[in-house]
Write a structure and sequence with these properties.
Elements lengths: L3 H15 L11 H10 L13 H18 L6 H11 L3 H11 L4 H9 L3 H26 L19 E4 L5 E4 L6 E4 L15 E4 L7 E6 L4 E7 L13 H7 L1 H9 L3 E2 L5
Parallel strand pairs: 1-6, 6-7
Antiparallel strand pairs: 1-2, 2-3, 4-5, 5-6
Helix pairs in contact: 1-3, 1-7, 3-4, 3-5, 3-7, 5-6, 6-7
The structure holds zinc ion (ZN) (2 copies).
Length: about 270
Amino acid sequence: MQSYEFLKAWRERARTWQAKVPAPASMPNDVAMDGAVLAGDPMVTLVQPVLPADLFAGAVADVAGLLAAYRAGDEAKAPAAIAAVVGGASADDRAALVAAVLTEGGVAAWAAAHQVDPTLLGTVAGLALQPFMARFAVAVTAEAPLGMWRRNYCPTCGSPADVCRIDTDNIRMLHCPTCDTQWEHHRLTCVNCDTEDTQKVNILTVETLEPWRVEVCEVCGGYTKSLDQRHGGHLAMPSVDLFLEDARTLALDVLAEQEGYRRGGRVQ
Ligand SMILES: [Zn+2]
Ligand SMILES: [Zn+2]
C-alpha cells in the first residue's frame, strides 16, 4: 500500500486524465446486456474500455513521477526510473505496454525487457488504469441495466469489491477499486460468502476511525470494511472517495487480520 498523501494526490490528478479518455465507440444492445446481468457476467465481457497507447503511457509515467516525488532518497529511484523509461518509450513500446497490462504476466515481462522494477510497475500501471476504467464505467453504467446486480464483484469490470458503505437509506453499496462503480448488495449478509445467518457476522471497531468499522464473518473467515453513513458528518456524502478511504483506514485491516480474518474470505 502506497502512502495516503501520494494516493490522494494521484486521485486528484486522475480526474484530469479521465477527462481525456474517450468512451467506447458503441454499446452492446439491451438483450445482450440483460443476458449478461442475469448470468452474472460483468459488462467488460461485452465491451472493452478504450486505452489509447500514448494516453496510457502518459498516465503511467505521471503516476511514477508523482510517486518519486512523494518518496525520499533511494526509495525514489525505482519510480523515477519507470517515469523515465515509460515517458521515453517508442510508439511500439507504448502499444506493447497497453497489451501487457491486459495480459496475465504481461507487465512483469514488459518490466524485465525494459529493466524496471516489475512489482512497482504493476502497482503503478494499476493506478494509471483507474481513470480509463472510471471513464469506461461512467459510459457503461449510464446504459446497462445494473439495478438488479447483487453479486460481490463489480458489474462493470468484474473486480472484487474492496469496501462498502451503508447509505442514509440503510442500503449497502459495494465499491469497485478498479473502476469506481458502486452497486447495491444485500444489507445483512456477509459480502464475501452471502451467509444470511446474522449471528455469524460481528463488528470490530477502532474508535478514531468511526463511522468506519469491520464486519467479520465466522462462516467464511472473511472481513469487509464498511462506512456507516446514517449518522451524517463529512463522510456521509455519496461522493466520498472510497478508494482513498480504504487507504486511510488501514488500522481496521490490521485489527481484522490480527483477529484471524482475511480480506475477501477464506482461500477455498
Ligand atoms: Zn469495476
Ligand atoms: Zn462470510
